[in-house]
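Researcher: Structure prediction, please.
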Amino acid sequence: MTDAPAAEAPPTDELRTGLVAALEAELGDAVVGSFVRPGDDVWVRVATDAWRSAGEAALHRLGCRFFSFLSAIDWLPSPFGRYEDSDVDVPLAEKLAAAGDAVIETGYAGGDTRFQVFARVVNLERRVGITLKVDVPDDTMTVESWLRTYAGANWHEREAHEMFGIGFAGHPALRPLYLPTDFEGHPMRKDFPLLARVVKPWPGIVDVEPMPDEGPGEGAPADSTDDADDETPAEEGS
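Model: Predicted structure follows.
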């Protein structure tokens, strides 16, 4: 009787788990979630009131001097589904009302709110990056600005404010970047309807063009091959 092979130990990543440990040492209980994918990446979620402190810790404690990006995400499942499959006969009000019953599932490191802000910073010397994320409170829709820590966050926060309606306390000028100043709504929210797609089918459903190698039975018109054959003798004799 042979012994069963020993189970392999799960992979570890001391570099990235070390980043999490350093943040926990700096921020304590404000680190509310983390996820390490060994050899690949790391995500850390912090408490809302510790967002600015997390940026400062990333810069000074983790040595992440390179600011990659800051953005936001709306975890609400779209009440419209895929616009390609949308049912244009369902009234818009009914679709929006159904969104209130949707189950929200967040990504790595979890989350407790519909909206989250996340940012990516990198330690170039150690060649490792970290994604920090924070829950955006539903009642205030505001988190602290990173502008004083990472100057590159300026336009990123303005974009998130414009597209998601998220405020960044301490940012001096959350002016629009893309939209007219009198534009109403926030286009990147899942419940912001693309009205042209709500009132009529997605044009790709009916405007399908056959691929060059498709025959009549595969999407090309039934007489397309006959026309091509009729032109061939004339071309050869010219």
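Model: Residues 202-233 form one domain.
Researcher: Thanks, that helps.
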